[in-house]
Each structure stands twice: as C-alpha cells, then as structure tokens.
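Retry 2 of 3 after timeout on previous attempt. Resubmitting structure tokens to design endpoint.
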C-alpha cells in the first residue's frame, strides 16, 4: 500500500500512550461513517433473513453516500453481539452481508434491537481476530474475551465483551476523558505499558474524529487490563523511532488474502515482521488501515 505517515509526540496517561499520525496521502471520495449514519437513521443492522448465522450480519445503508463501517466496531443486539472483522464500504442504498465474530458466547436467542456500541473492541482482541485463520477465528476471539474477564475481574453471564467494558467503564473513561485528535490528524498509534500495540489510520481527519471516542475506549480497556497502575515514566515510553519502525513494517507487509467483495473498494489482510493487519483501499486511497504487533512468547 502507498501511505505516507508522520509521527508526533504522544499523549500519555496511566499505562496508555497515543501517538498522533499525520498524512498527505490522497483521500477517498465522500462517504459517511458508522456514527454519522446511525445518528441520522441511515444505518440498519439485522440477521440474514431466514438464514441467521454467527459469522454474518446484514447491513442496510439507507443513505445517499457510501457507508464506512470499521474493523473492530461492536454491534450490540441481534441474536448476539458481534464485532466487525474487516472494514467495509457499503454502497449507497444497498444491503450488504458483512463478516463478523461473536463477542457474546453465551447468548443466541430472539433478535434484539441492534445498534453500534460506543466502544470499539480493544486492540489485543482485534489482533487475535486479524491473525487467526478462518476456522480458528471464533474460538480465538472467545478465548481472548475469557482472558479479559479474568484480567478485569469482570465476569459476564453471557461472556459479553460489552459487559467487561461496563464493569470497568469508570477506569476506561478516566484514561481518555477530554482527549481529541489534533487538527489534521488522520491516525493514531497506541502503546500500553510502554509497549507498542498497533495503529489505526484513515484517509480523512474527519473519519478519525468520528471514530475517536470508540477507538480510544478500546485502547484504554487493554491498558486497564494489563498495564501497571500509575503513569509510565517518560523514559519507558515507546519512542517515535519505534513507531516509525512499526509503520515501516506495515508498509512493507505481504498481502495475506482478500476479503469477500461485499462492498466498494478492495480489502485485504497482511502480515509483516512481527505485525498483522487489514487495509481497505478505494479510488486510490487507503480508507482505513489497522495493524497490530504480534504477541511474542
């Protein structure tokens, strides 16, 4: 992929550090984000009619512009809560089947009203989802949620990731309260406990702004779960050079496969030196790239 990124000094709170990313790379044509579409009533989420299955949901875009839904968004309700596997651009006025993973293992019942969670899945769960093979993905996601329940002391009657967020909501909110992207910022790299976890970057500052609160809540949950209490010393923060090295690994990564052609543009997974991720490209622009540092033994 062709993407130019510049890293700035991080905002650090507790065990969480957010590194602003800037880019002059091309932007895609106009689209609406999930938060915007939901706000104006242009987004509908439902089980596949007559053929509900765990790894698929139907998304209806009732608007006049393409709709961007982002990898890691959590969709609450339907027969069980799911997280989106890969970013997708749903054409205007279209209904599209998207790939998802269950993040609520203990419920499969009558469909409930569905909506976007205000919180993205945390980056370590997104890493597991991106790195797993298709036949192992769901079991790996469930296993990671069990670890979150243990790490956070947040048991759920239905093993729901959303319940873990709710149980530690005050801690998550405290880490990210009042944060906003800088002017013209398009992305963010994330470190927890001084260790880089990954990055998200979009083609427009407006898209990052729309998803900022949800993404940061997900980043913060990993920090609450695994980082030591108290602020990380400046000398222990990941350096800008380390973030630049991560970006270099992402830009030289090898395509590992395409996503199903259910929306506009081309999506694929990729793997590099110690990194795994996904990218969605459309009309010559990188609409969204997410990358995660692979866990080491």
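Retry 2 succeeded. Sequence:
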């Amino acid at each position: 992929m062709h993407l130019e990124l510049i890293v700035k000094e991080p905002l650090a709170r507790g065990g969480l550090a957010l590194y602003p990313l800037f880019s002059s790379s091309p932007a895609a044509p106009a689209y609406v984000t999930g938060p915007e579409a939901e706000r104006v009533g242009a987004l509908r989420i439902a089980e596949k009619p007559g053929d509900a299955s765990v790894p698929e949901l139907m998304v209806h875009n009732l608007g006049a512009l393409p709709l961007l839904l982002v990898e890691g968004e959590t969709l609450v309700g339907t027969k069980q809560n799911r997280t989106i596997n890969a970013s997708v651009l749903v054409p205007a006025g279209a209904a599209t089947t998207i790939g998802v993973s269950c993040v609520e293992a203990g419920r499969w019942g009558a469909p409930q009203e569905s909506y976007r969670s205000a919180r993205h899945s945390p980056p370590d769960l997104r890493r597991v989802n991106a790195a797993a093979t298709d036949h192992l993905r769901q079991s790996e996601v469930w296993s990671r949620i069990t670890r979150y329940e243990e790490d956070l002391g947040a048991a759920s009657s239905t093993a729901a990731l959303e319940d873990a967020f709710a149980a530690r909501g005050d801690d998550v909110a405290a880490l990210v309260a009042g944060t906003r992207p800088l002017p013209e910022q398009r992305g963010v790299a994330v470190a927890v406990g001084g260790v880089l976890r990954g990055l998200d970057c979009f083609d427009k500052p407006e898209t990052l702004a729309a998803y900022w609160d949800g993404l940061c809540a997900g980043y913060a949950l990993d920090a609450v779960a695994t980082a030591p209490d108290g602020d990380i010393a400046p000398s222990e923060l990941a350096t800008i050079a380390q973030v630049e090295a991560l970006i270099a690994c992402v830009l030289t990564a090898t395509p590992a496969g395409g996503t199903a052609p259910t929306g506009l543009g081309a999506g694929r997974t990729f793997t590099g030196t110690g990194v795994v991720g996904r990218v969605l490209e459309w009309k010559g622009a990188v609409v969204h790239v997410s990358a995660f540092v692979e866990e080491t033994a």
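Attempt log closed. The radius of gyration is 18 Å.
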